[in-house]
Amino acid sequence: MNVSFLMPIALFCLLAHGARAEEPVEGVPSGGRPRCEGKLADGKREGVWTCHYPNGKKHSEMAYKAGKKNGLTSFWREDGTRDFTSYWKDGYLHGTNTIFDKSGKRVRAAGFKRGRLHGWIREWTPEGRLVLESQYEEQRMHGVSREFYGNGRRKVQCEYVRGELKGPCKFWNEDGSPMTEPKPSATPSSGG
Questions:
Q1: 101 with 118: CB under 8 angstroms?
Q2: What is the largest CA-CA distance in the chain?
Q3: 152 — phi, psi (to 5°)?
Q4: Is pLDDT of 8 > 90?
Q5: Which of 67, 123, 148, 157 is buried most, with the most CB atoms less than 10 Å from its CB?
Q6: What average pLDDT does the segment 81-88 reach?
Q7: Coil, strand or helix: which one is 177?
């Protein structure tokens, strides 16, 4: 099994395996926790809430509607660099969610629909080259899944239907030539 296919999948599953948004303890400046401010309507969060690290730098901005995350949520590292962005609808991850490296470059992105993987998952090298892309539907691989070498050439391509591998995968050597006998460890996993 090729672990590089599973890494971004595992991360995004941890973020949203069908779960509702968990609310951190907000507004309590203890133990280095971010301090958050925003408006309440009928005792529920409403509009954009902004949180800051104890050093004053922005930690996050979260949009709420009737107490549930709804819209863009952004997080920053303590040094001020963007960490990740996510989109929410009615308290569930919904839309494209993106993780950034410390230099601000996009390294992973995944689509969600009502808290479940849905759409493309993509991963890039620090230089911005695509190394992985897989399609998901309702938390299962569905469609084409490709992995690329660091030089941008195809490494493996497989087709999935509702989480099941359909037909043989195709493999290539790093020079772009078709692989005659693929390595058993090169077969991607359905991950879902």
A1: no
A2: 65
A3: 95, -10
A4: no
A5: 123
A6: 94
A7: coil
Two tokens, residue 160: 């999935």
Residue 85 CA to residue 93 CA, distance in Å, equals: 11
- Cβ contacts of 99 within 8 Å, gap of 6 or more: 11, 83, 84, 106, 107, 108, 109
Q: Which residues pair with 92 in a beta bridge?
A: 89
Q: What six digits make up the tokens of 77?
A: 């590292």
C-alpha–C-alpha distance, residues 46 and 26, integer Å: 14
Q: Does the pLDDT value for residue 74 go beyond 80? A: yes
Q: Decide the pairing of beta strands 44-52 and 35-41.
A: antiparallel
Distance of CA 165 to the CA centre of its chain: 23
Q: Residue 38 has which token pair?
A: 């925003």
Token code pair at residue 54: 């104890």
